[in-house]
């Protein structure tokens, strides 16, 4: 019987190496995880609409067009995910991360949030909807190892 | 045949009078709308858990307890809503507003966002999931009047 | 025990008097029906976005904005409907009527189509998804009378 | 970990080579896409019912029988799809394309419409329910490449 | 606080007085029940399609047309029901009763079957999907009284 | 606009006065709540099947028959509830209380558990699925007052 | 890209060779179909409960026990199916076949019925919920070939 | 055509060898079953939260944190399961077993309970929601063999 593969979606911050740290930790642990994520190249993400479907003169519609194309990817992958990890960093407003968390919560997906303690109060609604709140990428790996293998660090 | 009542949930910012402006505009127009909202008294909202279920020594669990009690209200009312209006102001991170938008989107609820143009780029994913983006409370009233009565200003 | 009210949504053509004929027939029969419909004032419907949320320079986005506001109304009322009547007339392409039929079908709503025989071949997929195909507004009234009261003409 | 395969359903027009152009563009780009579509042989599609289940004397029931058999295919494949592309050409009424779009929208499937600008006003409701509107088959390939690989042309 | 009204759908046999016996028993007990049912006039039911939408020459399509119109009523009322009572008598094949039971079961509706013991073996799948199997209309009233009031006979 | 009525289901222990204390507290606070509950007369509940549908010789089937009739009531009322309160007392195994909590959780209903601290470890999975854990009936009233009115004690 | 496998559930009559005829026709046509079915050994099916879980003295509970075990199989496989074929023969009451059809219909599964014309009137509700009605096993093969390959006989 | 694999989740008691007995019986029978289960190492399960995400000073929140991490595993695997086996032993309160049964029931999953007769009365609601109640692990194997292969012991 082949082992079950867990689909894990990595939502949120795109300006630090947290995804790589989780992926390398999971690889080191040999866990059967298929990761997915939004497009993390900020410039490409901003051009997702105009780069594929043509220019727009109004910034609002330029963003709208790009967000539509990005949503094809993100909403499909979140619907496919077994677990959604949502990372909040210290820069930018990151409303799409909170939006993804709300979207996942309404679908009944288990959520793990990942952020520093200084964001705790601002993120209390999101953390409450999550099954776990981690402080480091390594803790997320530990949670995944336990969830998949039942092993503690 | 009695007229259909529309349930409209007013999510987001709690530090300006946008809810009152929408409610008074809707009342002036005589529209059959039943409004609902999160608890908008900031202090009460922060004490929702400890004020009802007892103190907590750790700030994280204090927030967690409060967010749980608030979620009973907010998620019930969002599930009940026909339309969800989500307001983003210029202060605070307002991740719960974006979370509510994601939650509503996954449930297939029509969303109207309400914010200034300087937030457009940061809110592009949320705006894309909305049916409309308004700049003023009065525009939201105009949208509701059209949606309910088919009348333009 | 008060009688059950049936919510009937009247989708499609907005350039003939079919809605009025169904409504007056139902009123004459004394049936407990609450009708709903898209905004049937063509000019208002086209201005739904720009008339409430401000002008747009590009025709595509003007339409997009209007269609978003109209969708708040139509999708809410279709979700609320017990029965969806979809009328196809002889003018215009009426893709929104077919879209509404598909939307209703996926939600498991009973559909009654209303159109002339010369459209039969072009509408075969839509008619197949419907529970009944009527040729006149009076037949729709007869169907509703039977469905609600069990009485034949 | 094997790469995720994306199921893409190609709905709508059957009288031009747009499906082939998308399929060859996707093949050239090496994207992991499994395409599906309605039966695109017009004569076979019209005979789907009588050719399998026996003749009918009435044209309406002939079409009804065929549409039932076609619906087994189309509704199954749309339910299976990750993304639904809907093409509107310049001939015929193509109500089934709009019906499929409505069906997909109610299921929460991401939609990409594909049509010329002269159909924009007539298709505004369908385009509003879509995540993207493309003008050429090549743009659809660009959208799929971005959605799947995060790469812009 | 007004008392909750229970919607009870009475499916199945139309050739005996079991519905009247349940309705009068429930009325005598003063229970807050709103009953619904298929059209129980056999001739009207058979003419539901042709009597409203015009004649058909083929018996199969005559039945098909009638069944479509009847389904608008029955499926709407079953979806609305809190409890579905399904009666099997000793005449006719009553496949529609078993179909309604399967439809209700897949929707998660509580089912009470009502039939004599000599049908037990043939109805074992349907009875297993039911919450209770009654032998008399009076037992159904007793079940409803208990369910609604908590009172035993 | 009439005030929203909140449906609150009171699951669990039937051997203490916790339901009365919540109901009188809610009445004193003037909150718009419609309470529902399983049948709390232990003897009647045990006889629910045999008292309505006839005796059984085997204890297993006697219980099975009764549990079926009780489930018509409990599952209907839980599906109708906005909030489910689940009480665990110090006697009996109360597996039906935990079952109801699991049932409510899978439906996405907000849950409030009510029990003493000495049950905390044994109930940790149930408490985690709840939005709040109360220690007294009065705390439940406080939670409901806050949820409905936004008022703290 | 490997070809899509279609899951086809064969419900109903267990006393003729219709399943074998469909399976051999599909094999001859080389169609990618995975068939499933209830247990078709009548004696084994009747003993499904007592043969696995121990004897019962009452015939009603003997059947109940068996139907429960059979339902684990049948409801799982119907939920998994892309298409449900339902065969009605000329013997027995076959209420489970009609129940399965209702169950599949409520889940939105495409249904093909298979029966002689003399059952048409009695099966009109079931046939109306189906996408196609076939008279021979060979016609079912023809429908599957068309649905999967788009080829007519 | 490769054989269908059945996903079977083994919920409940973690202090006896019932899982091993089912797994070895299924292996001996050569049945295509993929088993899953909660983490059955009691100490690890209690440390699931603090062992991965850091210590907690309050026992309630220590348990809460652990139950959140465990729920990521259990709720994902229950949602994936075709059949849920729920074992109740003679020690501990095992409320999580009953919670899992309620969760599975609301999702429409077939349930098999496994317990001694002395627990029958206390478990009557859970047993009623199950398709079968077994007394031994071997009976569960017999049920699975029948369900998958149609073979009786």
Protein described:
8 copies of one chain form a homooctamer. With 153 residues, chain A is an alpha/beta fold. Chain A is 48% helix and 15% strand. The first copy, chain A, has a 5-stranded parallel sheet with strand order 2-1-3-4-5, with helices on both faces. In chain A, strand 1 (6-12), helix 1 and strand 2 form a beta-alpha-beta unit. In chain A, helix 1 runs parallel beside helix 7. Chain A is globular and about 55 Å long. The model of chain A has no long low-confidence stretch (mean pLDDT 97). Chains in contact: A-B, A-C, A-D, A-H, B-C, B-F, B-H, C-D, C-E, D-E, D-G, E-F, E-G, F-G, F-H, G-H.
Features of the shown structure:
homooctamer; 153 residues; alpha/beta; 5-stranded parallel sheet; 7 helices; 5 strands; 48% helix; 15% strand; globular
């Amino acid at each position: 019987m082949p082992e079950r593969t867990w689909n894990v979606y990595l939502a949120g911050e795109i300006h630090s190496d947290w995804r790589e740290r989780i992926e390398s930790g999971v690889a080191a642990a040999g866990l059967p995880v298929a990761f997915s994520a939004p497009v993390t190249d900020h410039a490409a993400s901003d051009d997702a609409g105009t780069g594929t479907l043509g220019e727009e003169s109004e910034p609002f519609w330029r963003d709208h067009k790009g967000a539509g194309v990005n949503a094809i990817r993100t909403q499909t992958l979140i619907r496919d995910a077994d677990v959604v990890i949502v990372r909040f960093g210290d820069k930018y407003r990151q409303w799409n991360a909170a939006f993804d968390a709300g979207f996942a919560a309404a679908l009944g997906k288990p959520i793990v949030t990942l952020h520093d303690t200084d964001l705790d109060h601002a993120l209390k609604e999101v953390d409450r909807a999550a099954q776990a709140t981690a402080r480091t990428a390594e803790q997320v790996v530990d949670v995944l190892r336990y969830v998949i293998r039942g092993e503690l660090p």
